[in-house]
Specification:
The protein has 502 residues and is mainly alpha-helical. It has one domain: Sodium/glucose cotransporter (Up-down Bundle). 73% of the residues lie in helices and 2% in strands. The chain has a two-stranded antiparallel ribbon. Helix 8 crosses helix 12 and helix 14 crosses helix 15. It is globular, with a radius of gyration of 22 Å. It is a multi-pass membrane protein. Keywords: Amino-acid transport, Cell inner membrane, Cell membrane, Ion transport, Membrane, Sodium, Sodium transport, Symport, Transmembrane, Transmembrane helix, Transport. Its main location: membrane.
Length: 502
């Protein structure tokens, strides 16, 4: 690893910390500032913050690695995510932005649900807070695994700490940097760094596939196609070995968007409802470019590896391997900064949402109802550190797969909160008991499904992604229980307004 790489990375770290200190001076005076940036995000910042916090290290590690190993058929995950994100902006974004402010300025998803369904307020806040903290610990761990793999592959020659492995050093260094700007600057720091990180990620995913495609003999689309056809005639087929359940398991990743707290919280922070369409257009454009780049990286990276006899032991490190081989050290540093950006943007967002839930839905609810704003901000900072340390221990296994951890947490949130959020925003007859039933049903179904291994093999056949049964059963549970327990005193949104049912 050459000195130029360290210069680029040092500049990136200084920029992230500088943004953190700027946000600390501008927007950490009270809990609304610390948790939602005062609801003053511009459309571009909100859009790229949602995208960068969503994509994480799986965009540059997990997805290219899956395509590198299995071919274009893995692109169905990206297609499903794109469709799901679009409908999330259409269905959830405008309604959540308006209703969370109308319902007594709710700052977290559990707080919104408790005010939307006052008859089950305590149960909703408690259960949803537990679900958020548990699944975010796993989700954050996936980002730390990516950080550990990055350091192990690229920076192992930089630091020698005796009994500490390169992987462990990578986990704790990644965590230390993220914690610094997240603890200091809160939501505004996370959102502004997400914006910068999103731009870096997109540029990297434009540059990298093009350079890989046209490097070496037999390059270009034609050369790559011939190389891959020699390896596997169906490598570039979207349907190679694709079963019905395999197709469903891939495209239904898109269902998860409706229930991801770290993504939909950005909708709550956009400046005005009128700016939601602009944010949607920016966000979807960024996502299309980034997904195409990640798909191209995995496919063209495999062609390059075959053509040049390159042995890639872990497909999820193809981005790191090619960045080191093909670019000037200063550019390599920029590309590795893009990977760190993908990792850190998601970790910081997840830590802040989990911290906000612990602060608002546990500490303030059960321990200190009269806590002042300064105290709540400080408690929020302490909770960020607590969740981070737990996630670091979960990520301790160097054999962990980024995409596997992400898929588990993604399904947990999607099944637990997805049907709940959609129906809470759109169905006036939903009851508090139905909300609790859906939340519990979705989360438990996913946990049981994972525990029984049915995601890999179901009843002797191919596996079914756990978000499918979780989402369906949660949706059914909400509808059935709501119809059985509808109460006249429940508050429901009518024409987007918080009014008592009549």
């Amino acid at each position: 690893m050459q000195f130029g790489v360290y210069i680029s990375l040092a500049a990136y770290f200084i920029l992230m910390l500088g943004i953190g200190f700027y946000a600390w001076r501008k927007s950490t005076s009270n809990s609304e500032d610390y948790m939602l940036g005062g609801r003053q995000l511009s459309p571009s910042v909100a859009a790229l913050s949602a995208g960068a916090s969503d994509m994480s290290g799986w965009l540059l590690l997990g997805l290219p690695g899956a395509l590198f190993a299995s071919g274009l058929v893995e692109a169905w995950i990206g297609i499903g995510l794109f469709v799901g994100a679009f409908f999330n902006w259409i269905i959830v974004a405008p309604r959540l932005r308006e209703q969370t402010e109308r319902y007594d300025n709710a700052l977290t998803i559990p707080a919104f649900l408790s005010k939307r369904f006052p008859s089950k307020a305590m149960a909703l806040r408690t259960v949803s807070a537990v679900v958020i903290v548990v699944f975010f610990a796993v989700y954050t761990a996936s980002g730390l695994v990516a950080g550990g793999k990055l350091f192990e592959s690229a920076f192992g020659d930089l630091i020698d700490m005796g009994g500490w492995s390169d992987y462990s050093i990578g986990i704790w260094l990644t965590l230390a940097i993220v914690l610094t700007y997240t603890v200091i600057g809160g939501f505004l720091a996370v959102s502004l760094t997400d914006f910068v990180q999103g731009c870096i990620m997109m540029f990297a995913l434009i540059i990298m596939p093009l350079v890989v495609l046209y490097s070496g003999q037999g390059s270009g689309f034609g050369g790559a196609g011939e190389t891959l056809a020699a390896v596997d005639p169906d490598f570039l087929s979207l349907f190679n070995g694709l079963t019905f359940f395999g197709f469903l398991s891939a495209v239904t990743w898109g269902l998860g968007y409706f229930g991801q707290p770290h993504i939909i919280v950005r909708f709550m922070a956009i400046r005005t409802l009128r700016e939601v369409p602009a944010a949607r257009n920016i966000g979807m454009s960024w996502m299309a470019i980034s997904l195409l780049g990640a798909i191209g990286l995995g496919v063209f990276g495999r062609a390059y590896a075959v053509r040049n006899g390159l042995d890639v032991a872990d497909p999820e490190t193809i981005f790191i391997v090619l960045a080191d081989l093909l670019f000037h050290p200063l550019v390599t540093g920029f590309l590795l900064a893009a990977l760190l950006a993908a990792i850190m943007s998601t970790i910081s967002s997840q830590l802040l949402v989990a911290s906000s839930s612990l602060t608002e839905d546990f500490y303030r609810l059960f321990l200190r109802k009269e806590a002042g704003e300064t105290e709540l901000v400080n408690v929020g900072r302490a909770c960020v550190v607590l969740v981070a340390v737990v996630a670091a221990f979960i990520a301790g296994d160097p054999n962990s797969q980024v995409l596997g951890l992400v898929s588990n947490a993604w399904a947990g949130f999607g099944a637990a909160f997805g049907p709940l959020i959609i129906l809470a925003l759109t169905w006036p007859k939903m009851s508090g008991a139905g909300a609790v039933a859906g939340l519990v049903t979705g989360a438990v179904t996913v946990i049981v499904w994972i525990s029984l291994g049915w995601g890999s093999s179901f009843l002797g056949g191919p596996g079914i992604y756990e978000i499918i049964p979780g989402f369906i059963l949660a949706f059914v549970a909400i509808i059935l229980v709501s119809k059985a327990t509808e109460t006249a005193g429940e508050f429901r949104p009518i024409d987007g307004r918080a009014q008592p049912a009549r």
